[in-house]
Request: fold
Amino acid sequence: MSPPKEVALLGPEGTHTERALEALTDLLPRGAPRRYLFPVAEVFEYVSTHPEALGVVPVEDSVEGEVPFVLDLLRRYHGLRVLREIRMPVVHHLLARHGELGKIRVVASHHQALSHCRRYLRENLPHAELREMPSTAAAAELAASDPSVAAVAGERAAKIYGLKIVRRNIHDQGLSFTRFFVLGQRPLPGIRPVKTSVLLELAEDRPGILQEILREFSSRGINLTRIESRPDRGVLGEYVFFVDFEGREGERRVEEALRAIEEKRVHVRLLGSYDVREVKGERVKRVSLL
Reply:
């Protein structure tokens, strides 16, 4: 089995996702090529067709919640597994070619970054157009080419695109955190899983089925860390469930719970068992849950 040789991520250079790569130094060779792609769906497509590539995608943030289209892509790409979770604080700054708020006519960024900073932008740039971009770095790239445009992005993007940090820390609710998933086609040696993600698809909806499913976890002392529902292939009123929990594939209590859930006419698809890393400034911290 060949080790990973490259990584695909949301581009262009300078996104918050790129900083999350600090948590992959043990999985990738030094200087491994980076494939900057957008939209995020292209990351899934690339990794699904390149066995020696890893992909890094945002899956949830502490302000806006889950990233719905990423959950949908996880469901669509059956050949990909979650190999690692990365947790990282995200800080938003207002970037521009100059420091004069009065000359800013457009504020550009990814829609989630704009949502994080909506109060600041309403109070300080009430007449500016808010323009959604594929990524924070794409917004910084635009701001570098047009003095009437400011970007909401990180400090790294300011350095890459030669922008001034007009205002620091403009997010409305203090520090926010983003969870990223590292994706690949096969398990990697050396990873010690502490969490698992599964997709639950109901053969039929009936009263109390979700409560029954949850009981199979709780009765075995398995702690759920997230449960999200998504529409089932566009059928109104029918849903699938994404569940994260503490435990690993092959662990007795986990296997018993998943078998018991399948007996309730629920299709269980394992999305991956994985470890967890935290990026804190220049430090990467291993997270122990068990």
Remarks:
- Confidence is low (pLDDT under 50) at residues 282-287.
- The longest helix spans residues 252-262.
- DSSP finds nine helices and 16 strands in the chain.
